[in-house]
Amino acid sequence: LGKTGLTDKLASGVMQVSGMSAVNEWRRGAWALSAMDTLGHMVSTKDFGKVGPNDMRMLGNYGISESDWKVWKLAQLDDLGHGNSAALTPEAVGRIPDADLKAAGFDNPSEARRDAIVKLLGAITAESHLAVIEPGWSERALMSGGLQRGNARDEFTRSFWQFKAFPFTQFERMIQVGLSRPNTSSKVAFL
């Protein structure tokens, strides 16, 4: 069987047959669609300084600055249907004319547009992976890293963790959310 064992192949087969990977991707896409619409509504109605503290902290986590916000404000928001009538999409940002960016004070329009698109995609992608939890390589490494195949103790440990990946991942993400709070008292309160 090479480097991939029978149990690994069975687990991958179950995920494919059950369609769970496809369902998770669909859920992430739906979440991202709603997030782009929410962000579009915020951009169209608020200046950067009027964004609430929790939203400001999230924007700061992804390096989104007032400059990026100014670029986003120039975008013609997309109607993606299903109630998402003001979505801030990467395509909407990409369609901003150079002349509009120059008039807004951007000396290098293509760089400003590119940076705003990259930060938008980074924030939406990262937040969608937090919203729709799926175990990744880091969780699997924490659960089974360093375990030897064929060793009875390690095989028992591996079998223990086999169906614990989702709750482990959810617990780990909640710890990350708690630790990302702005001060010690809010971290302790969340945790």
Helix content: 55-70%
Number of strands: 0
- Give the biggest sheet: none
Which oligomeric state applies? single chain
Unreliable parts:
none
Write the layout of secondary structure elements.
Blueprint: H1 6-18, H2 20-45, H3 53-61, H4 66-73, H5 90-94, H6 98-103, H7 109-131, H8 137-144, H9 152-161, H10 165-179, H11 184-190
Helix pairs in contact: 2-7, 4-7
Commentary on this structure:
The chain has 191 residues and is mainly α. The protein is built from 11 helices and no strands. It has helices at 6-18, 20-45, 53-61, 66-73, 90-94, 98-103, 109-131, 137-144, 152-161, 165-179, 184-190. α2 packs across α7 and α4 (66-73) packs across α7. It is elongated, with a radius of gyration of 21 Å.
A few lines on this structure:
It contains eleven helices and no strands. The protein has helices at residues 6-18, 20-45, 53-61, 66-73, 90-94, 98-103, 109-131, 137-144, 152-161, 165-179, 184-190.
